[in-house]
């Protein structure tokens, strides 16, 4: 029998990897709706710095955040490779769509859950609450993010409320 069919489906997970300021991050592919090129983001006044604005995604208004600013780095420099990763995140028992600006998208990788190390408690450049863990893939570390925690509930509510107005 093919060994691949004997694998526990929960022992492996697929992650979309992307770059932010030369650091590699990953997010569960189950949170990713699509990837689009950076274009037509309309700024919204009086929002936190990390909120770039909103975009019209086939008739839906989608808030767009700059993950680089969110992680206390300088703003993403827009280039030909800059993308918006459209995420679907559970918020107050409903699915919310949000866009995340990244420097570039790399690939989808499969990671054995046993190979994910816990989030570091010190020395991390981003808050540990955002990090699912760290995986060593090839010759680089990939910081795996918790999509649902990249924004706090209060921040998410404020953004949604502002976009709805």
Protein model, in words:
- This protein is 10% helix and 47% strand.
- The protein is globular.
- A hairpin with a 2-residue loop joins strand 4 (51-57) and strand 5.
- The chain is mainly beta and 165 residues long.
- It has a six-stranded mixed β-sheet, with no helix packed on it.
- The relative contact order is 0.22.
- It has two helices and eleven strands, in the order E-E-E-E-E-H-E-E-E-E-E-E-H.
Notable features of this structure?
about 160 residues, mainly beta, six-stranded mixed sheet, five-stranded mixed sheet, 2 helices, about 10% helix, about 45% strand, disordered N terminus
Quick structural overview:
With 165 residues, this protein is mainly β. It is built from two helices and eleven strands.
Secondary structural class: mainly beta
**Average pLDDT:** 81
Q: What is the percent of helical residues?
A: under 10%
Q: Strand tally, please?
A: 11
Rg calc: 16 Å
End-to-end distance: 57 Å
How much of the polypeptide forms β-strand, as a percent range? over 45%
- Global morphology: globular
- Taking pLDDT < 50 over at least 5 consecutive residues as the criterion, the unreliable ranges are 1-9
Total helical elements? 2
The strands making up the biggest β-sheet line up spatially as: 8-1-2-11-10-9
Largest sheet: 6 strands, mixed
Elements, N to C (H/E): EEEEEHEEEEEEH
